[in-house]
Amino acid sequence: MSIPWKGMTMCELLAMSAALPTDLETSLALLKPRGGELCPHADGWGVAVYEERAARLYKEPKAASSSRLFGSLRDYDISGRVILSHIRRANPAAIGKSYANTHPFEREVGGRSWTFAHNGKLTGIDQEQLTSFRPLGGTDSEHAFCLLLDHMKDFLSRDGGIADLDLALNQLVEKTTLMNRYGEANYFLSNGEHLFVHAHTYLHMLERHCAVDGQPQSVVLLATQPMTDEENWSCLVPNTICVFLRGEMIAQKATSGAATQDAWKAQQKEAESFRTRKAEAAANAARIEAEKDMYWECS
Amino acid sequence: MSIPWKGMTMCELLAMSAALPTDLETSLALLKPRGGELCPHADGWGVAVYEERAARLYKEPKAASSSRLFGSLRDYDISGRVILSHIRRANPAAIGKSYANTHPFEREVGGRSWTFAHNGKLTGIDQEQLTSFRPLGGTDSEHAFCLLLDHMKDFLSRDGGIADLDLALNQLVEKTTLMNRYGEANYFLSNGEHLFVHAHTYLHMLERHCAVDGQPQSVVLLATQPMTDEENWSCLVPNTICVFLRGEMIAQKATSGAATQDAWKAQQKEAESFRTRKAEAAANAARIEAEKDMYWECS
Asked: Would you call B7 helix, strand, or coil by DSSP?
């Protein structure tokens, strides 16, 4: 059984790292209604699926729940070893709906697609200077992505890969600690091989193991909210970057700088308001339905 | 009335520059069957539509003619001032079908999407050294794109725009002349404002003018083959880069280095063979249909 939501955040993240290419069809189907129908993340959705060094990107600046493209994803062979996805609620609303403002973001480094999706608000991060990469849109998230890549690119191998994981992770911890100062920085960052996951405040993980055609398969799912209630999702330790490779966690390291709780509390309050309004709407619809039945019974 | 094809090339290009945002729905509908049904460009298709500084990319490594996504494009608001599209025939076939090998290609420079689509074969261009940009896939086309951007980026404004058109055009002529040495280099290159079109051997242009809500609208269509036969398409002068801005040609400049005619002749021969096979298949289908009718008449 799926869990529509427990609590609520500004955006929601869902990603996968797997030993063998696979799709996220079931999890994406559970994510879809949370983008605008069950939850108010109605300002955009995006999915990045890796095909060798390149990320196939599907995204739209509209609610996932009513998107025909999202609904058709199963037709487009969305199998890969790494998949990132995101449903967005623009905050502030002035940083509006547009393709450029929709996650995941993508840049090529050394002939590899690097992709990024973020949950949180990083007020003022645009004061950090950028050099090689610049945002196409107006979000703090894309600015943070450019900031990370500007710094990381000098510590990657010539082909955009991770030659020295300790070195790369140390650099990422340094820049993520800087991000943490501006707000909440839960994110996914990947080059199609390694998946870096920063749990700043709130991210969950599920491991699955099975065999596919006699080959051992390991899959790790990462999500803002647990996607199912019958499986053993664990909450990642806040202020930690975890590194996944082919379905296994291969490293983790702490970042510094706790997110302020104000934004989180405000979200919880708004979530409660949304729940109340949804419940009222449902009660209203039931009342109208009941009145219609009464009418038919009388006529 | 549409023209299915006159002659045939390895890939086909279609682009638009317009004063006011508009879509390419009719032209794309005419292009769709040429990607695998009427013509053998069945290895991929792509459309880049600009939304401010960002290009929305839709592409798939499969035949446009049978693509559900291509067929659904009208649902996704594909309006813009600049649109690039491409249908691909892999040549050589070893540089196979993949998302990374499908045009248009895209890179961010100065916070703008630069996009590129190419028709032709540039054998050996991968020996040209690259610095800032590297291919995600294995095509000569993407290598050429990276080569152009590596050179162009130093002559752009800080926001990825064209500050000095003469300067930018001179740089582009220099690198395009280098490309010409490797083969056939018909291409579109854009940053969402300016559209640079290199007619190396064979490209056509159509201008349309009208009023939209009292505003003057100018649209320029560029295509490998004329898309309609009742309009006045003109053939661009070979070895020329033309620059379009908001539906008007604002500059042009000659490149050097004629493409060899061997590849062109081979394509024409293959096109003739494809036409013959299509005609035979159609005759065969008609014969079967006629025999079926005879059967029904007898029974």
From this structure: coil
